[in-house]
Specification:
Structural class: alpha+beta
Number of domains: 2
Strand content: 25-35%
Number of helices: 7
Number of strands: 7
Strand order of the largest sheet: 1-7-6-5-4
Length: 192
């Protein structure tokens, strides 16, 4: 009925399994295979459509997540509980795509969904009250990728220092990927 919901799947449930479960619940629905905003003909159609895609929670307690000395299990709790806002990104190229460096023209359309109530709650799903769409420039996108990688490295280093991780291979592999980044042209593409 032209409504939008954020639903929390079962523990360890893959997106494909969740989609199949929803299609079994709505057997006459037609599944849409993209995360783009549907056009007006879909909204006016007599048929029932389901558009299902993964969203990322946006934690409210950023200071808890960034403070040193807080155990990882507490941080993990706040990353996925008491969440009002969720987002998903749609990458696209603006202008002519640079074949030498695709990052130069890679923009991101970021959609933020704000719920009527926080998840998880009495229900596993709540309706979207508001949606906000912003475009992130290639520079903003590159900065965010670097900040996320730095945060991932800090977490791995902290786990090694507190002996939560017996095997340091994940840290070694992550460091190797940062220092000797060969994928998509590596660091030089970001510097350009």
């Amino acid at each position: 009925q032209n409504k939008e919901f954020v639903c929390r799947g079962h523990d360890y449930e893959r997106l494909e399994a969740f989609q199949q479960r929803m299609l079994n619940e709505f057997p006459h629905a037609i599944a849409m295979q993209h995360a783009n905003q549907p056009d007006e003909t879909i909204f006016q159609a007599e048929a029932q459509y389901l558009q299902i895609y993964a969203v990322t929670p946006i934690p409210e307690n950023q200071e808890v997540l960034q403070r040193d000395g807080i155990p990882d299990n507490i941080k993990s709790f706040y990353k996925v509980n008491h969440i009002w806002r969720f987002r998903y990104d749609r990458p696209f190229h603006k202008g002519t795509k640079d074949k030498e460096n695709e990052f130069k023209s890679l923009w991101v359309e970021r959609t933020t969904l704000i719920l009527v109530q926080s998840l998880p709650g009495i229900s596993r799903w709540f309706e979207v009250e508001k949606r906000e769409v912003v475009e992130m420039s290639p520079l903003e996108n590159a900065i965010e990728v670097l900040e996320n990688k730095n945060q991932q490295l800090r977490t791995l280093i902290s786990q090694c220092q507190t002996r939560q991780m017996q095997n340091i291979n994940p840290l070694t592999m992550c460091l190797n990927g940062v220092i000797d980044a060969a994928v998509n042209g590596g660091v030089a593409r970001y510097q350009e």
